[in-house]
Every structure is written in structure tokens, then in C-alpha cells.
Amino acid sequence: MKILVSSTLMCLALMLGGCQSAYYGAMEKIGYHKRDIMVDRVKDAQESQQDAQKQFSSALEEMQALLHHDGGDLEQAYNNAKDEYESAQSAAERVSDRIDKVESVAEALFDEWQQEIGEISKSSLRQKSQSKLNQTQRSYQQMLKSMRRAESKMAPVLTAMKDNMLYLKHNLNAQTIASVKGEFTSLQTDISSLIKEMNRSIDESNKFIAHMEP
């Protein structure tokens, strides 16, 4: 069902030329509201973080294998590490893209919610709806802050990976590999910290989804 809906969304997005307001309006006509879109996008962001965790771990493993290379094809070991680094880079880009999409729909949802509160004539109902909106926004901001904090840890790790891969590329021999082993100890610590931060972000996402879903 989700695959069918996702395909429908993609087709409509292309037809609408990226106009978000028209996009959301079209989705509502088929019973797919901003709240539903937001929950799905948060889940997509979670999936991208989980994938990034695996990719960063795989990149570290291949780099460690390169550092402890003992015989065999040294260039192949380097290429394996390089491929995993590039996969981690792509995974990080997907994380950022999906967080941006969460922010986009959140802004539209909260704006609409606030506008509709103003249309409620009964003050008691208006106050209850405003209270619910405030609670949802607080939960959202806590989740988004956690997402962005985890995201911010990816760039320094990728930069360190890139520096070491480029250095090794230009000096691919046993002596050069031995000279950068200390760098990888620090990198291992940074990746461990990144994965823990992503786990915290995923936990916050689960709390937000529970808040949003009936």
C-alpha cells in the first residue's frame, strides 16, 4: 500500500512541478493529509539514518582492513575502502535530504493547523486545539534538534575519511599506511559517537510518531 501511495505521490509531484501547496492539496483529495505525509517522512528519515549507520560502520571496517593489510592486492583493499567511503557520503546526503523534507511538511502542517484554530468559534475547543498544537510543536522541535545534531556529526567524519583516503591514494605503500594508523583511532571514536547520536535521534523520532499517530 505504501509503495502504491509513494508512486502516486511521485507522479503527482512531477505533474505539479514541485508546487508544494498544490501537491498537499492534491494529496488531501485522495485522503492523504499533511499529518500522514509528515509521519511517513519522519519514518523515511529514520530509515536513512539507520542506513547511514551501517554505511559508516562498513567504511570504518574497510579502512581498518586496509590499515591491517598483510599481503595480497593493496590497491584492491584501498578501492574497497574508497567505495565504502563514497557509500557513506551518499548515505549522509540522503539523511540531510530527508530531514529537509520533514521540515518542509512540518511548516505546512503547523501553518494550516494554526490558521484553522482561528476559524473555531467556540473558545474551549479553540484552546484545546491550541494546546495540542503547542504540544506537537514541542515534540517536533525536540525531534528535529536531535536529527540535526546527529546530522552535524557526519560532516567531520566524512572530512576525516576523505583526508585519509586522499593521502593514502597518493602514497599507497606499507610505510604510509602505518603512518596514519593513529588517525583511524580517532575516527573510530567519532563514528561510535555518531552512531550513538543517531540512535538517540531515532528514539526521538519514535516518540514523535507515537505522538502523531492515533
TrEMBL record:
Residues 42-105 form a coiled coil. It comes from the Bacteria. Keywords: Coiled coil, Signal. Residues 1-21 form the signal peptide. InterPro entries: DUF2959. This is DUF2959 domain-containing protein. The lineage of its organism: Bacteria, Pseudomonadati, Pseudomonadota, Gammaproteobacteria, Alteromonadales. It comes from Shewanella yunxiaonensis. The keyword Cell wall biogenesis/degradation does not apply.
